[in-house]
Target: Fasciclin-like arabinogalactan protein 17
Amino acid sequence: MDLQIYGFLFALFLSFTINGAALQENPSGKNQMPATTASQINSNSVLVALLDSHYTELSELVEKALLLQTLEEAVTKHNITIFAPKNEALERDLDPEFKRFLLEPGNLKSLQNLLLFHMIPTRIHSKNWYKTRRHSTLCPGEEHLPVFQKSGEKMVSMAKVIHPDDIIKPDGIIHGIERVLIPKSVQQDFNTRRSLRSISAVIPQGAPEVDPRTNRLKKKPEKPVPAGAPPVLPIYSAMAPGPSLAPAPAPGPGGPHHHFDGETQVKDFIQTLLHYGGYNELADILVNLTSLATEMGRLVSEGYVLTVLAPNDEAMAKLTTDQLSEPGAPEQIMYYHLIPEYQTEESMYNSVRRFGKVKYDTLRLPHKVVAEEADGSVKFGFGEGSAYLFDPDIYTDGRISVQGIDGVLFPVEEIKVAPKAAPVAKVVAKPRRGN
Model:
């Protein structure tokens, strides 16, 4: 029992001895190392105070510059002093071009250097402001930051301190200043970038301009190309991309192996039609009323490519019962809308612009569908039975191309023999080319 009492008294004496020595070394208790660790910042830290302070513009830039971890490591080693520019200085006083330069992702290092230039690894209280003293900053490789008094006012470089000792914490102090401090390295980076941008922005005078739609040189004023005019460039420049029949796959053991899953591709484009909206009637005919979906899948599996001219729901609603009631009528109508070539809106438009009228083969042999340029789009068919390319490139996967049109097409022979109906004014919606 006596040994336990003696041990307790010895520990108590040792504790008083250590604490007394610490107080003698720093009786005021100021400038103590912050109670932080490398992995955790005290809630009473100057960094937490900065993020919660009225210096909102500076705190946002610190977060955008990814500097929190760097500053956490700094306050674990020593006190810091932060010279915080007022919000107006960062919002209005900075040149817009310079601020845009700082916020560009490629200039993250410049933004970090500018912010670290406002911080020094020393605790400077307002009552300890020297007449002239230069301090190193947290910005690596920069010149020292002068801290001095001028005409009774506290200064940091060229900025006046407007809120001295604004925030005081155990591991640092924040002083409010009237303007932003810009280190020389950041200013040089900005000047270099601006000079390069001004050089690269010079447009050569007299350089030829090429029309991407026609591959022709633009002229001023540009005259429209008349329909049927001979091409300036070789005919191959206007041909549609890709052959009608893909190369056959190499045969292997047990017979040829096809690398195209046509059935899946057809299901995919029909599903795309449903998600796109406005083409439910066509999808219903392909899947439920005919076996066309299966036939198209077989063709694609064998290496063929297809372009589908897809009438929208408004066009399909105009079909009469007589037109659909005869055996095989839905299939014949759809066959006339299937072109055994892979065409996109751009390739068809290039062709009709160059040649005036273009005839495409269809799966309804021997009938062809005629296309021509009209109103900045591609028009198929003749007269009242014509249809415009209305929804371009709904589906293009390199094997199947789906182009939305605003009418149902019929061969010219059927249009001539069809009974004459009451004239109906055809309202052509504005083609949605390029959407």
Remarks:
- Confidence is low (pLDDT under 50) at residues 1-39, 199-204, 240-258, 416-430.
- The CA atoms of residues 55 and 76 lie 23 Å apart.
